[in-house]
Amino acid sequence: MAGELKKPKLVPLEFVAVHRGEQMKRADDFFAMMNRRRTVREYSDAEVPIELIEKAIATAGTAPSGANMQPWRFVVVKDREIKRKIREAAEKEEYESYHGRMSEKWLRRLAVLGTDEHKPFLEIAPYLIVVFRINSVEENGEAEPTYYSQESVGIAVGLLIAALHNAGLATLTHTPSPMKFLQEILGRPKNEIPFVLIPVGYPAADAMVPDITRKPLDKIMEVV
Asked: Rounded to the nearest 10 degrees, what angle do helices 20-35 and 149-166 cross at?
């Protein structure tokens, strides 16, 4: 017989009302800040306070998640030897991708970004944040899947990138495929699936980025 479902425990919402004029100013300021965000592949090795990383990850942890299961794990890598191992494994997979796995169309898309299988930023950036998606949990000796884990972790990563940018740090979303090597190098359990690898730090003084543009609002939004 199934156990009785628990009743929800509700508490008053803490919501701070914002004047309409201030709402628009906040929206404009936040957009302006985020519109300056760029993917960075050239990093300084200057030290970054760990407190900034901690606060950004705490912010990511406020993301909504399916059934409030919070199916994410953020592993912060600062050890040079571990970063070296990650770079070597990532470059091995990326070589295979650039020299056989990727279609001509895919390679054509990447050509304008100037990317290839060489990933020095994986060693130069002071931190690598490896985000894992927890696909199941065990409770009372029984396994249970996490619900909407893909969507939940994606939202959390978006908040993480915004929080790091807000703190004045540069990031890159790196997804070498397959990423099982991250699970192995970092000794993570089998229910933690690598989702994305994010180098974090300050950009190099002479950092360059591709000359690309973002789609205008009327190309990404419709009101019906």
From this structure: 90
Q: What's the Cα-to-Cα distance from 181 to each of 62, 76, 166, rounded to whole Å?
A: 28, 16, 30
* Domain spanning 39-203, CATH class: alpha beta
- Mean pLDDT, to the nearest integer, of 50-66? 98
Per domain, the residue ranges of the chain are 39-203
Both tokens assigned to 119: 């990933």
CB burial readout 115-140, b (16+ within 10 A) else e:
beeebebbbbbbbbbbbbbbebeeee
The structure's pTM equals 0.95
The residue type of 92 is K
Beta strand spans in the chain (E) = 72-77, 127-134, 136-139, 142-145, 170-171, 192-201
- CA–CA gap between residue 182 and residue 4 (Å, rounded): 40
